[in-house]
Design goal:
Elements lengths: L15 H4 L7 E6 L10 H7 L4 E6 L7 H8 L9 E4 L6 H20 L4 E5 L8 H12 L4 E5 L4 H9 L10 E5 L4 H10 L2 E5 L5 H10 L6 E5 L7 E3 L14 E6 L8 E2 L2 E2 L10
Parallel strand pairs: 1-4, 1-5, 2-3, 2-4, 6-7
Antiparallel strand pairs: 7-10, 8-9, 8-10, 11-12
Helix pairs in contact: 4-5
This protein binds S-adenosylmethionine.
């Protein structure tokens, strides 16, 4: 007698892999919130904030405030159940930073592994000098199959320019965006190379930059903006007024150099050098 095969009938649509049910892992979102004004939260970010993804928000020390969380609170949202902080201290020590990125990534991964989406709240834009980049890279290194999605947002300097009614760049202007920590020597050089500079993280070097701009006759073409879009927002037109002041970390400078020696352009393009395009 032929033995009866009592194993379940295989579903013809199933591949050997799909026969073993694997829980779907969650997605890690870099949720850009804009620089402070809740009105600059995009519709996409707003939808995700109202969804069932867990919120993760950055703090500089355990129990400390979170600027990103402050933005969503000012937008009228309250902390949902399950939201959790991730600690990223303000230090340049690479070992301390790596340790905290790893701890944060492991925490996030526990939730993703259980199938929960995690929305990491980011001040400004998540692709612009953001902790999210480090977090996403560390999570992906631990599990390359995790899905990561960045929700684009308004940057601090876009909001600052708009608030001041200034163009960041016009016509054929060149624009450089950099952390001021590169130092006055680099900034001095870039003022010859670019029509406009956005200087972020200016706090530690502010007096030196003011002195440079004064030396180069550019003070009147520079603006200082602190905590744009927040209730404490401040813009300063005469930079000599803030000389010697300890300003907020969330502050930046927009500088234009109208004296820059530009190369001639033809219909918006640089004229070709005599040797360029010849004999090619
Ligand atoms: C780590 S970077 C983050 C940049 C941010 N992801 C963005 O999209 O603008 C921090 C620097 O951005 C600038 N910044 C961020 N938010 C700001 C705000 N609300 N007002 C003025 N500057 C801000 C400051 O120069 C600050 O030192």
């Amino acid at each position: 007698m032929t033995p009866i095969d009592e194993s379940p009938m295989p579903n013809p649509s199933m591949t050997p892999e799909t026969l073993i049910p694997t829980p779907t892992k969650g997605c890690l979102y870099g949720l850009s919130l804009g620089p402070g004004d809740p009105g600059l939260i995009t519709r996409r970010a707003w939808e995700l904030l109202q969804g069932d993804g867990l919120w993760a928000y950055p703090v500089r020390k355990w129990g400390g405030d979170s600027f990103a969380l402050d933005i969503v609170h000012r937008a009228g949202l309250t902390l949902p159940a399950g939201a959790f902080p991730l600690c990223f201290p303000m230090t340049h020590n690479p070992e301390v930073l790596a340790k905290h990125w790893l701890t944060a990534a492991q925490t996030v991964l526990e939730h993703l592994d259980r199938g929960r989406d995690v929305c990491f709240l980011v001040e400004g834009d998540a692709s612009t000098y953001s902790t999210f980049g480090h977090l996403a890279r560390t999570v992906s290194a631990l599990d390359p199959l995790i899905r990561v999605e960045v929700i684009a947002g308004v940057t601090s300097y876009q909001a600052a320019a708009a608030h001041l009614g200034l163009a960041l760049a016009d016509a054929d202007d060149t624009l450089a965006i950099l952390p001021a920590g590169y130092g006055v020597h680099t900034i001095d050089h870039l003022l010859d190379e670019f029509d406009a500079l956005v200087l972020l993280k200016v706090k530690p070097l502010l007096d030196d930059i003011i002195a440079l701009l004064e030396r180069r006759g550019l003070l009147e073409y520079a603006r200082f903006v602190e905590k744009v879009g927040c209730p404490e927002e401040r813009t300063v037109q005469d930079l000599t007024q803030i000389r010697g002041e300890t300003v907020n970390y969330l502050s930046l400078l927009l500088v234009h150099n109208p004296h820059r020696n530009k190369e001639e352009t033809l219909r918006g393009c640089r004229k070709k050098e005599a040797s360029e395009g010849e004999g090619a």
